[in-house]
Amino acid sequence: MRMAQLSTTSGIPVATIKYYLREGLLPAGERQGPNQSLYGPEHLRRLRVIRGLLEVGGLSIAAAHQVIDAIDSDLGLSHTFDIAQRTVSPQIDGTALSPEAVAQVDAVLSGWHVSPDNPGRLAAARVLQTFAELGQPDLSGWVPGYAAAALAVAEADLDEIDARTDRESKTEMVVVGTVLGDALFAALRRAAQEHVSSQRYSGGAS
């Protein structure tokens, strides 16, 4: 298909597609002349991935470029996971975290295979440090529940990846699933909060 048809089918303006081409997010089409190229299903699929990363995942162009490069690489799934996690996670200086907050997180993650600089470990410690600074240091009943839910979600993530049959779709699911999975979990948490609160407080309890 030509650029105009690619735009119509994808719902993405021609100017935006050309921008993705210039930024290297979208591979070039097959040249048919000085100003004409043909695009195939792989371009349409990549456009949908880009849109998901940018519009739903909220990534910057630079971050999207990194995760798309991971999709196109020959790296193993564990390395791809590492790239995806570090790209979409805030950069946190572990030395700026309180030992108490880090110890709290490590106690909850006891028995897990997590590297010291894992972005989730550091982000969780920063959250607990912030709670302590707000005068709410005792989260012993709350954090383990989150950890259990996170472990269940991680199992669901890997089950979904394992259900894919080829490397490209597995890698794509690792990257896109890491980004969009965060958005999905946050969205479902909002719905679950309404459900549980309506059950607990529908009688007027406060």
Please write out the topology.
Blueprint: H1 3-10, H2 14-23, E1 30-33, E2 36-38, H3 41-56, H4 61-72, H5 77-88, H6 99-108, H7 119-133, H8 143-162, H9 167-201
Antiparallel strand pairs: 1-2
GO molecular function, one term: DNA binding
InterPro entries: DNA-bd_dom_put_sf, MerR-type_HTH_dom
Domain HTH merR-type: 1-70
Range of strand content: under 5%
What is the total domain count?
2
Strand count: 2
Oligomer: single chain
Write down the overall geometry.
elongated
Radius of gyration: 21 Å
Q: What would you call the structural class?
A: mainly alpha
Order of helices and strands: HHEEHHHHHHH
Strand order, sheet with most strands:
1-2
User: The biggest beta sheet, please?
Assistant: 2 strands, antiparallel
Number of helices: 9
Domain HTH merR-type: 1-70
GO molecular function: DNA binding
InterPro entries: DNA-bd_dom_put_sf (IPR009061), MerR-type_HTH_dom (IPR000551)
Protein name: MerR family transcriptional regulator
How would you sum up this structure, described in words?
By secondary structure, this protein is mainly alpha-helical. The chain has two domains: 56 residues, Orthogonal Bundle (Multidrug-efflux Transporter Regulator, Chain: A, Domain 2), CATH 1.10.1660.10; 142 residues, no CATH class. It has nine helices and two strands, in the order H-H-E-E-H-H-H-H-H-H-H. Strands 1-2 form a two-stranded antiparallel sheet. The longest helix is centred in the C-terminal third of the chain and has 35 residues. The relative contact order is 0.09.
